[in-house]
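Case study B.
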Amino acid sequence: MVIRLGPGYEFDLIRRFLEDMPPLPDAVRVGPGDDAAVLRDGTVVSVDMSVENVHFRRAWLEPEDIGYRAAAAALSDLAAMAAEPLVVLAATAFAPQDVPDFADRVVHGLRQAVEAAGAVLVGGDVTSSPGPVVLDVTVLGRAERPVLRSGVQPGDELWVTGELGGAAAAVVALTTGAVPPPGAAQAFRRPVPRIAEARWLAGHVALHALIDLSDGLSGDAGHLAAASGVSITIRSADVPVHPDLAASGDERRRIKGSLAGGEDYELCLAAAPGAVEAVHDAFVERFGLALTRVGAAQAGEGVTILDAQGEVMKFGTFGSAVLPGQGQEDDLGGFDHFRKSGDAG
Amino acid sequence: MVIRLGPGYEFDLIRRFLEDMPPLPDAVRVGPGDDAAVLRDGTVVSVDMSVENVHFRRAWLEPEDIGYRAAAAALSDLAAMAAEPLVVLAATAFAPQDVPDFADRVVHGLRQAVEAAGAVLVGGDVTSSPGPVVLDVTVLGRAERPVLRSGVQPGDELWVTGELGGAAAAVVALTTGAVPPPGAAQAFRRPVPRIAEARWLAGHVALHALIDLSDGLSGDAGHLAAASGVSITIRSADVPVHPDLAASGDERRRIKGSLAGGEDYELCLAAAPGAVEAVHDAFVERFGLALTRVGAAQAGEGVTILDAQGEVMKFGTFGSAVLPGQGQEDDLGGFDHFRKSGDAG
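Model:
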């Protein structure tokens, strides 16, 4: 089995972990390498782990927000398959001094996100941690017609929902000790898994591919390109930038935050030319959310970012941007979980 | 919704986390409080988190064993529902210095356990950890007729598979710097989720209830008693003790290890008098595994342990025995994740 993910040391590691995998049994329709696994009967399942001081900092978030974000990140993987959420399991590791009060508040926020998505918490695990708080959220849903990463065709258009870089704008503010603008703070603290939006789009457009933007547009487009065996070009000037990021006035930060700022949890979709345009106005009216064409697919491989003049922009490897200051500064990523010096290129 | 688990601070915490839960939707047949959640269509799902220096010590296990045990613990929850494993997802947090070599070996062991159970790894998450290694394993299976914790009837017999305390015997040896006897080492390093055994038993006996022994017999019998609204009496002299624990010659250690030593992952089942006896020989012949009557259920609540003379033995609260030296020494537990001083009673 070949695991077709985009570039990055984290994804190299996943490829290593899955070397020499046995063939998938008939009961499994989609195995590793997409946003979620899918069984033949339409069951969709995914898991997302959040680790303190990797995915979140306690000083930057209320405990409820920490739980909310952990669940929203996992639920977003169901959105990325156009699946309907059913049940959630939450495994938690808290330090003894965090129970019961801090832990209670984290789990309360987690349950808010689960219930907001129409799902229910049906189990989990509770353990102590000698170190960071760890939240691992398993989500299970159903999709009659799951939309995979692997269906992008040369000639397809690439679209995104919403505005990108809100979470990145909040992180920039928090890093410098500033108070994030309310819109950016909301995007960072209470991301919305685009479940209803994904299901509506899948019902109204012949979507070729779908992914959620957890690693940042450039990185996630890399996953689409790798899974589909195509090249993707993104026009940076067309990328809808969150107003609080745009307002920062820093061109480099604007480009980096909107292209590589992870954790916006908006959707990126591919469809034949004109297909999304035909439902654009109805979507915007229904959801009050932008829907913007940002690029296209061609024969080839990898992701190319064009600047406003149509020139190819040069960047290093793309990773998921989670916390600043841990990645390398000279690339479009911000954070690769296992970046080694010399890997960026 | 009332969460009916046995006593212990860890379980009090779970009860707190699940306060004011909305009613379960029709699509969910079994919610929190059993070994796994069950959907109406027979999908069974559970999650189990293993944290370094809580559930395992690197000095005591090969990396492959760490992964194997983490997966076996999760798969054992499917055995406890008499479910057939289908797919597994593994979320991992490793420190940068642990990748790729140590991490590779852990995941290799995890995959061995998954494949030995007839399941397949279909996804997961890979993140870095600033602290301990964390493995969170999600298991998904199917059960036509899941066997719950809540069906014990007054008058039922309580039976266990295998011999108890093997893992505890290994931990005792490792704690004192000794080399564990081979049988105990195998039980500790490569526990066998009793999946085939559970499914055979469920097919041949009208099981009233089933649980796997992850917290130790006394603690897990407490979960059965709480879930079923009955009292359970265990005759300690009837409990089958792993030969390497019996050979240690220490009476207190023998009793504690076999009654409260967690992580044996044997099964504990309840059925009407005579029902298990009728298939006993066929079971032992088929699986080469002991099947032993250890107690009975009556009207009432809680767990009572009788000594060889039929006298009630006095213990403190029961917790899961994982690593020694972290629990309180004057009770039958060994480890409660969040034991507070003064909680033992």
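The first strand of chain A starts at residue 28 and ends at 30. The remaining cases will be described in the next quarterly update.
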